[in-house]
Amino acid sequence: MIPLLILGLLIQNPGAHGYELLALMDKRHYKYIVNFTKGSFYYNLQQLEEKGWIEQIQQNPSTIGREIRNFKITGSGRIEFEKLMAEYGTKSEYVNLQFYGALLFADEYDKNKLLELIQSQLEQTKTRIALLDEYLSNTQESPGTIDYYRRMNENSRAHHLVNLEWFEQLKAEIEGPVA
């Protein structure tokens, strides 16, 4: 998935350098789409260059004394982008929260510690919803166009709201009736 993100971002931002692409991924909250680290991002960037799917373009001298490598997508990179779009666009996978794995053994775990885990999930989910709300409140679709990224974030927000409700119900069931 990381190669698709990099290729797509370079189509949208030809001439960008790695740090700019990472900053866009952070700003757009791509971490909720795919797990990546700075290292895995730069590894994929290097692999795309070695495969000839992206290439460096004329570099501007850096004012801070280090080399800045600006990239653009190549013709073969565009073909790979099309393949990746078809590959990922036809996939539909189950929601897979790592929390589900831990929940399999909830009966074998201390009840108070389990409640702490659920509280952690509640807080993380509320944070994600707040970030999505912030993004959505600062963007608007232009009339006559479809902003797919906005729509994706609206859908993600709806999923998080369902998860929030589920975590709250789960917490209430574990806590039991209030005396």
UniProtKB/TrEMBL annotation:
Transcription regulator PadR N-terminal domain span:
6-82
Classification via InterPro entries = Metal_resp_DNA-bind_regulator, Tscrpt_reg_PadR_N, WH-like_DNA-bd_sf, WH_DNA-bd_sf
**Source organism, top-level taxon:** Bacteria
Please give the name of this protein: Transcriptional regulator, PadR family
Q: Which organism is it from?
A: Paenibacillus typhae
Query: Species lineage, top-down?
Result: Bacteria, Bacillati, Bacillota, Bacilli, Bacillales
